[in-house]
Amino acid sequence: MRGTDRDTDRGTVERGSSDPSFESELEALVLRAFGEGEDVEGVWDLEYEPEELPDWTVTIDRKDGI
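Request: output the structure for the sequence above.
Response:
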């Protein structure tokens, strides 16, 4: 999540002026899990209660070709 743009399904999402804490927390979570040997690549569906909270689909792909 470093940099000013992120790739999503071959499109580019411009970084807005929104609070970067969500990105920072997600990056820390993924790096910590990876560092602990967890398999973090894949598609993750996040579902929340109550229904007022949005559900998310998060895709984690490794981009370094390893």
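The longest helix spans residues 21-35.
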